[in-house]
Every structure is written in structure tokens, then in C-alpha cells.
Write a structure and sequence with these properties.
single chain; 596 residues; alpha+beta; Beta-Lactamase; 5 domains; 5-stranded antiparallel β-sheet; 15 helices; 15 strands; 52% helix
Length: 596
């Protein structure tokens, strides 16, 4: 046997590639649909388990909420009883203690039930041993006396009255008074009631086992209630007198602050990995409920995902076995077919390799009448047409680029949806003082390159062109690369396809010199108009203030010359009239010059 034969089987030949392609084409749909079916089934099972556990957690938390709500409403109603008015007198007859003792025995969920007077002393209690105990330092007493509202304390050990529980305290108001507090009625809901309700949840058919259990935690991740095997596995300290919390251990979820935050605030089910275990966590935070909403608790149901997905794993194993058999059959058929068409494909591959190196002059032909020969002929025609089109394209590109480069402007094109600049060419550096890459990098913050007075003008021009499908233009100030504002004019044209505007194109030209020249011409025109106005005012002043007095003086001299009889006087008057006429002629010449 030739040693090169095994190597040829794995060599990257056309035949082997075709074999691989056929295998991929044949197996990909099978694998994709198989994977989709598996993950869909897996997701369905996970959702079903999650929804069932979600319903169980909702039911359990609803029961806990009803327990607290029922207890709080009971305590409120007891505080309103006329019997509780004896708190102000210290319950001398013991009627309150007798009533509280009956309630504590009847309900069986309170480890302490006491009435405290204004002096913070227990005057009545279901347990006579608590009479006379001072609760001056108790937080629940201070809060109720200060606010006059009911208060629910966290689950802690009551250092004053003893016992673990949630303290429910309500004020006792004096009858027919304006909110005067005479005492506080306080009940401690036994934590064992919570433990009983939590451990009674059916997480798995067996109830609660290491593969499925329920845990009630507080806002800091400390365990409030959980099955014994969880507490023992965490080496938690069991309740002892004087210890503030029921259990001194934080659940492992508290090690991940982000996960703890989600568990405490958002109900739902999530799939996580802890060590080698894949777990499903279903949580129901207390914030969703009326009476326990402010406790910060959350009930978490934990289910081992592997045990929940055992049926899916069985299906996956059988599907994997069927897939292997299918792969072998498809591989055999693909190998036979690839051998029949391997040689022509090899020739086509070599010819394509020549084309990939830019050799568009080499042709290809196959001596057969099958589809591969037709393919070779079509590819050869494609080669000739491609060479022709590329030659024409290169010529057109060179002509187009030379035209754009010769024009002192910026040529641009852009698509509308999505907004994207597809062309930015021409004398970009010369007109805008920035390279095309710099301009494109500022497109998201184009307002910084356009003067603030012209933002609306530019937006209106583009909007008008798109909505009306008409060409337009806009003149605005652009921040040149040298830091100066310059005037440019943008000619905007629309690109229309299928009776709709799909893009914009146009040119941007520098009109800064034109605008400056126009401003200078306007300034010169204003100066000329002001000069003409000053000239007219000057002529009016000269005509009125100088000529009129001179004419009056000449008239008076004419009158005097007719009355004077002495020659010497006549000569003097004649000299004065000549001087006046000369002055009048001089004024007329000045006015004629002003008219010019």
C-alpha cells in the first residue's frame, strides 16, 4: 500500500474540499434543526419548570403576605378595643393580659404579645413573666411613639422581651382625643411560622431535597428560613438566646452583589452556574406585595438544572447516536459523488487561481457535455466580459477622478437611510482646510463645524430637498481648518429611486471672497449715500445761511445808493456792492463745485 494514500485522503484537494462542502451542505440543516429542536425543547422545559416554580413562590409569598397582613390588621383592631384603654391605668384588673393570653394561645403564631404604657413598661402580656419589663431602648417602641403609625421591625431577636420574630407594633390612641397615644400594642410573629411556610413549598415531587429547595433571605443576603440540610451544609449557627439574627450565615448568592440585587428586586427565573453545578434560580421579592413590601426579603427556589432536564439529556444522547449514523451514510455518498467530478473541479480551481492573480487572458474549456462544461464556458464568457467591464471601469474612474480633481470644490454623496456618507472627494483640503478623514470623523458632531446661526438653515435645506424631491442650495459659515469662519455654498441634489428620495449629492464651493467683496461694496455704498446726504445738507446750509444774507445786503446797498447824494458815499456804496457781488459769485462757484 502506498504510504502517500492516507495523506491524499486528508490533503486539501478539490475533491476533498468538494466532499467537505457536500458534507457541510447535507449536515448543516440536520445539525441546525437538531440543535434548534434541542434548545427549543430545553428552553420549553426550563420555562415550564420556571413557571411552575414561579407560581409556587408566588403562592408561598402570598401566604406569608396574608399572614402578616392578617396579623397587622388583627393587632390594629385589638388596639382599637375599649379594653385596651386600661393601658393608661396599668391594666389593674388584668383584663388586657387575659385577652392577650387568649389571643396568643388561639392563633399560635406569636411568641410575644404585650401592651406597653407611656412609660415604656409592659403592663399587659400574654406571658405573665413579661409584666413590668421596660422597653425604653426598644427601637419599635420609639418609632411608634414618635410617628403614631404602625411599624414592622426586621426579623431579629428581641433583647427586651425575648424570642425570634418580626415585631408588629401599633399605637393605642386614647378614646375621644386628638391622636393622643397612651401606649403601644406589640406582637412578635414567630420566625418558625416563616420556616414552616418556606419548608412546605413543593420544589420537587419529593418536597425539598438538595436538588431542589427554597430559601428566604433578607436584603443583606442573610438566611431567614431554609431546610435543615442547607443550614447544616453551610455550618450555620442555630438560633441561640442573645444572637441578633436567626442564622449568622449569608447565603452564597450574596457573594455576587449583582446577582443578589437582581434576586432582591426583580422577580423571574435565571439559569446560572455554580462550580460544577448548573442551577435554576426562581425568585419572588417581597417588594411585589402589600404588607411585606418594605422588608427587603426575597423567596428563592433553587432547582438543579440537570435533574430538571433529565428527559432532554436522554433525547440528546439518542439524537447524537442517530446523527453519527447519518453522518457516515452522507459521507459515503458524498465521497462517491466527489470522485466523479473531482478532476473537472481541479481544473476549474487551477484556472480560478490564475484569475485570482489577475490573469484575465487565460481561458478554460472542458471536453465534456455536462453541466461542468457549461459552467466552464459560462465562466470563460464571464472572464471576457469582466475584463471588458474592468477596462471600461478603470477608464471611467480615471476620467471622473481627473474631473473632480480639476474643480476647486468638494464633491459629496450620502445615503439617507441609514445616514452614511459614501463619497467625499475633490479639493477638500483646499476648500475646507481639513482632510476628508477629519471631516468624516466630525459628522456626528457637525454642529461644531457649522456656525450656530446657520444650523437651522442647513437642516431646513436638507429637509426640503428630501420631502419635496427638489434640488436646492444653502449658504452658511464653516469652521476652516485654520480656525476662522468662512462662507461656503452647498448645492444639494436628490437621488431618486422607485419614486422616492434615497440619497443626496452635491458640491461645496468657497464663496468667502465673494461674500467679503459684497460686504465691502455694501459698506462703500453706505459711505457714498452718507456723503451725498452730507453734501445736500451743506448746500442747503450755504444757500440759506450765506446767500440769503448776501442778497439782503445787496438789496439794502441798492436802496442806500439811491438816497446818497455825496460822491464819496456813492463810491463807498459801489465798492460795498462790488464786494458783495464778488462774495455772492464765490458762493455760487462753491455750490457749483459741490454739485459736481
Amino acid at each position: 500500500m502506498d504510504r502517500r494514500e492516507p495523506r491524499r485522503w486528508f490533503a486539501p484537494t478539490i475533491q476533498n474540499k468538494l466532499l467537505a462542502v457536500m458534507l457541510v451542505v447535507a449536515l448543516t440543516p440536520l445539525m441546525v434543526f437538531g440543535a434548534l429542536a434541542y434548545f427549543k425543547s430545553r428552553e420549553t422545559v426550563i420555562n415550564q419548570v420556571g413557571e411552575r416554580l414561579q407560581a409556587a413562590s408566588l403562592l408561598a409569598m402570598s401566604q406569608i403576605d396574608r399572614t402578616f397582613g392578617f396579623s397587622l390588621e388583627n393587632i390594629r383592631s385589638w388596639a382599637d378595643l375599649d379594653t385596651l384603654q386600661a393601658v393608661e391605668r396599668g391594666d389593674p384588673e388584668g383584663s388586657i393580659s387575659h385577652m392577650l393570653g387568649d389571643y396568643q394561645k388561639a392563633y399560635g403564631v406569636y411568641n410575644t404579645l404585650v401592651a406597653v404604657d407611656e412609660d415604656a413598661s409592659v403592663v399587659a402580656a400574654g406571658d405573665p413573666a413579661l409584666l413590668g419589663v421596660s422597653v425604653t431602648s426598644a427601637d419599635w417602641y420609639k418609632r411608634v411613639m414618635a410617628s403614631g403609625k404602625p411599624y414592622m421591625a426586621p426579623l431579629r431577636y428581641d433583647s427586651d422581651l425575648g424570642g425570634y420574630g418580626v415585631s408588629l407594633a401599633v399605637p393605642i390612641f386614647k378614646k375621644y382625643s386628638d391622636g393622643y397615644i397612651i401606649g403601644v400594642l406589640k406582637a412578635s410573629l414567630d420566625w418558625r411560622e416563616l420556616l414552616q411556610q418556606v419548608t412546605a413549598i413543593e420544589v420537587v415531587p419529593e418536597g425539598q431535597v438538595p436538588d431542589g429547595y427554597a430559601v428566604l433571605i433578607d436584603s443583606e443576603g442573610y438566611i431567614l428560613a431554609a431546610p435543615d440540610f442547607i443550614l447544616f451544609s453551610m455550618e450555620s449557627t442555630l438560633p441561640e438566646a442573645g444572637m441578633a439574627r436567626v442564622y449568622d450565615s449569608r447565603w452564597w448568592v450574596a457573594e455576587n452583589p449583582m446577582l443578589l440585587d437582581r434576586v432582591l428586586k426583580r422577580p423571574g427565573h435565571r439559569y446560572i452556574r455554580r462550580g460544577n453545578d448548573e442551577l435554576m434560580l426562581v425568585n419572588m421579592p417581597a417588594s411585589e406585595f402589600r404588607y411585606i413590601g418594605k422588608t427587603g426579603w426575597s423567596l428563592v427556589l433553587v432547582r438543579n438544572a440537570k435533574s430538571a432536564l433529565q428527559d432532554i439529556e436522554y433525547i440528546r444522547e439518542r439524537a447524537f447516536l442517530i446523527g453519527i449514523i447519518t453522518v457516515l451514510l452522507i459521507g459515503l455518498v458524498a465521497y462517491i459523488m466527489s470522485r466523479q467530478i473531482g478532476s473537472p473541479i481541479t481544473r476549474l480551481s487551477r484556472w480560478a487561481e490564475q484569475l485570482s492573480h489577475g490573469s484575465l487572458d487565460s481561458n478554460i474549456s472542458l471536453r465534456s457535455n455536462d453541466e461542468l462544461a457549461q459552467l466552464a464556458s459560462a465562466l470563460d464568457n464571464m472572464r471576457r466580459n469582466l475584463k471588458k467591464y474592468l477596462d471600461e471601469l478603470f477608464d471611467s474612474k480615471e476620467r471622473y477622478q481627473s474631473i473632480i480633481s480639476s474643480i476647486d470644490c468638494v464633491v459629496w454623496e450620502a445615503h439617507i437611510n441609514p445616514l452614511k456618507v459614501t463619497l467625499l472627494s475633490g479639493q477638500v483640503d483646499h476648500v475646507l482646510g481639513r482632510s476628508p478623514d477629519q471631516v468624516l470623523s466630525h459628522l456626528d458632531s457637525w454642529q461644531s463645524l457649522v456656525h450656530s446661526d446657520h444650523h437651522s438653515l442647513l437642516i431646513d435645506a436638507c429637509t426640503t430637498a428630501i420631502e419635496r424631491g427638489t434640488d436646492t442650495y444653502v449658504e452658511f459659515k464653516f469652521l476652516h481648518g485654520n480656525g476662522n469662519w468662512m462662507w461656503v455654498k452647498a448645492l444639494i441634489s436628490v437621488t431618486i429611486e422607485d419614486l422616492g428620495v434615497v440619497g443626496l449629492r452635491g458640491v461645496v464651493v468657497d464663496i468667502n471672497d465673494i461674500v467679503i467683496a459684497a460686504e465691502e461694496m455694501a459698506e462703500a455704498r453706505d459711505i457714498a449715500l452718507k456723503t451725498a446726504e452730507d453734501k445736500s445738507r451743506f448746500m442747503a446750509i450755504v444757500s440759506h445761511e450765506i446767500r440769503t444774507p448776501i442778497n439782503g445786503m445787496l438789496g439794502m446797498l441798492d436802496m442806500l445808493s439811491g438816497q446818497a447824494g455825496v460822491d464819496e458815499q456813492q463810491q463807498t456804496l459801489s465798492m460795498a456792492k462790488r464786494s458783495g457781488r464778488n462774495l455772492l459769485a464765490l458762493v455760487d462757484e462753491v455750490m457749483d463745485f459741490s454739485r459736481l
